[in-house]
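Reader question, answered in our methods column.
A reader sent in the components of a multi-part assembly and asked whether the whole thing could be modeled at once rather than chain by chain. We filled in our standard form and ran it. Here is what they sent:
COMPLEX SIZE: two components
ENTRIES:
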Amino acid sequence: MDKGRTNIDLVFRNGLKDFEVLPPPGVWEGIAPVISRKPVPFIWLRVAAVAVVIVSSAFFLYRYTRELSDQNENRILALNVATPPVFYKNQVPGAPSFSEMRVEETREPSVIPVSYRDEETASVPVEKISVPEFIVMPVNNRFNFTRTELLPGSFLPENTIPDTKNFLVDQGNVISLTDYGPVKPPARWSVAAMASPTYYSSFNAAADNGASRLSSTEQAIVSYTGGVALSYKISRRFSVQSGLYYSSLGQEVEGINSFAGFQSFVYSKGDHNFEVLTSNGTIFINNKDVFLTTGGNDQRVITSYSKDVFDPEKASLNYLNNTIQQNFSYLELPVILRYKLIDKAIDVNMTGGLSYNMLVGNSVFTVVDGTKYSFGETKGLNSFMVSSSLGMGMEYSFSEKLSINLEPTFRYYLNPFSGTSSSAIHPYSFGIFSGLSYKF
Amino acid sequence: MSLSEIKKIIKGCLDGDRRDQELLYRRHASKLYAVCLQYSGNDEEARDILQEGFIKIFENLHNYKHEGSFEGWMRRITVNTALEKYRSRHNLYRVDDIDMIPEPDAEPDNDDYSGLDANDLLGIIRELPPKYRVVFNLYALEGYSHREISKMVNISEGTSKSNLSRARAILQRRVGSYTGLKKQASNG
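And here is the structure of the entire assembly that came back:
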């Protein structure tokens, strides 16, 4: 028996070896136009997305370390003000000598608090003047100065003792700082409510042409994203942002005719009777009342109820629509780095980073006269996706705390919606985020 | 086709030369279409597999390293395309398509299969229910193990063995019937 069954394998193996059958005409005509198209090389898109993230992160990090370095250099002049500052005309033993301090060259003025010894430590109390609490120095020139230079009659105009504690020392001239107001610690945190209409589309991996053909019948629909962003300013130009967003993406699949009223004709026990192939995975039609069909040689609808088995028109089913919509919803956790390129009345920012997206909604439906008919869901979707983003934003401050933002942002999803091998589709989206932010 | 000729055609295809692309298709389409027919229940499906398979061949041509048989490489892509088609459809085949096939009563006595040509054998294979046909093709014609088949078709190894056994039994019986009919026809 075993011998006979082994033989049957050999009968077929040998009998069909080198067997050839002339294919039907027209196959080559279906292949030629497809292979003549040059698809966008997917690997380069992925490399480009990763490169953008790495370069922008490295750039931000570089700028940030530079700023920290600059701040550290200036701090050599910073001394705490413990008591009301007092200047003495005579030399005070042990008092810090300004001449020992060297101001490093920077491009911007620095605000430097200055302190001196307590009044009690002075051995010879003499003529006393108020001294600056902060000295703002344009330190683009390297210079040294000594305490005696600050005494009345030398730096200050003769016989003038200012009654304010605030001065500007500018190349030997002392200027009142009263107009500048009190110095407050900057608001580092801000919270923003942002929303954006989103145009979604996808790049197709070159190797998967089945998906390419499927996507030719699919249209992106305008989707939306919205949520709350929290950002922390870690330097004057550099901030990091996170938050929680809800995004809804979708597409319309054309050429799928749907009918209602099929339930009274079907007695199968399976959980679904129809499947629809799309570039983002296979749709399972769980609604048993729905009958689907396509025209011509279109084989996107997979079913045992083909038109020669069941005719929806003869059965007088109610025609619904010739399109179906796929919708995917994600909760999104972004980690965004923001760099302020221009710090003017309208700030200009550059943003870049990664977002982690968790699938929270998956539906397939059609809409007829404003009524939504649920069909089922798309199987095989990735429940977790990572997207990279790059944006350029503008920020206008109404007040010290309130500002309005506008951020055009491009996102590229590093993995496809669908985890099945037949769908190597990599989505991208473009949205213009706008919203209000509050600093605190 | 010599190795240098294959290399030349592949290079032409990679350069986008339409004549080389068509030449590649014309030279191999008949052999690959026969493979498509073995894996499909109808001609329309076989045609689709051939078309999609060739598109994948052209799109993945840069991955061919000239290390093995080019024809074998193309055949594997075609078989994989057929399997994708099978996987996308198999869960919608009705239960009675498969399980209501009667078991053969006994082994045929006649084991002289010399009267059967390739067309007969192809016809017999295509009459098999899809899940038996795919396992028999992968095991007997492509030489995959049950472990490999279980991963490719997403079934257990036990199911693979069982399906192969049933496929062989059905084929044995049908081959016997064909042979008997042919002999009767030639004698009569």
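What stands out: The domain at 1-92 of chain B is CATH 1.10.1740.10 (Rna Polymerase Sigma Factor; Chain: A). Chain B has two domains: 1-92, 94-188.
Send us your own complexes using the same form.
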